[in-house]
C-alpha cells in the first residue's frame, strides 16, 4: 500500500483504520505516514487526513508517535496550521510527556490559542488540557491559568446576557409594530 495514494483517495475513519492496520506497528511504514503529515503542499487535504490517521494510530500504538513529539511541537509552534492539524497534534500532546525545553514556548502559544475567540472549540479544549499538564511542572502558572478561565467564563456569560437582552429588545420592537 502507498499511504500517500490511500490518503489521496478519500477521508474516512475506515480508510484511516486500513492504513493503521497496514502499518501494524512497523516504524518504517509509520514514517511514511508521518512524511504525509509533515508534507509541504498547497493541497491541505493530505496532511489533514494524515493527521487524523496519526491521531488514531496514537491510540493503538503510542510508541510509534512518541519519537515525533518534538517535531509535532515544533510544527505547532512554528506555523499557522489548520484547525484539523492543531486539533490532532494537541489531542496527542494531552497524553504525552512534554520535554522541558518546549514547555515555556508551548505554554505561551497555547495560552494565545485559548484566548483567541476565533479558534475552534475543540482546539481550545485540547489546548487547556495541555496547559494544565504543563502546570504540573510549573505550579506557579496554575493560578494564572485558573484566573484566566474564570475571566473567560465571565466574558462569555456577559456576551450571552447581552445577546439575550438584544433579542428581548428586538421582540419588543416587533410586538409594538
Please, could you describe this protein's structure?
The chain is globular. With 177 residues, it is mostly helical. Mean pLDDT is 84; it is low at 170-177. It has a domain at 3-106. The protein contains 10 helices and no strands.
Short description:
The protein is mainly α and 177 residues long. The chain has helices spanning 3-9, 13-23, 27-37, 45-60, 62-65, 69-78, 83-93, 100-115, 121-135, 142-176.
Structural class: mainly alpha
Helix content: over 70%
**Sheet with most strands:** none
Q: Any idea what the radius of gyration is?
A: 20 Å
Strand content: under 5%
Number of strands: 0
The residue ranges in which pLDDT falls below 50 over 5 or more consecutive positions are: 170-177
> What's the overall geometry?
globular
Tally of separate helices? 10
Averaged pLDDT, please?
Answer: 84
List the helices and strands in order. HHHHHHHHHH
Instruction: Give the termini distance in whole angstroms.
Output: 67 Å
Question: Keywords for this structure?
Answer:
177 residues; mainly alpha; disordered C terminus
Topology (elements, then pairings):
Layout: H1 3-9, H2 13-23, H3 27-37, H4 45-60, H5 62-65, H6 69-78, H7 83-93, H8 100-115, H9 121-135, H10 142-176
Helix pairs in contact: 2-4, 3-4, 4-7, 6-7, 6-8, 7-9, 8-9
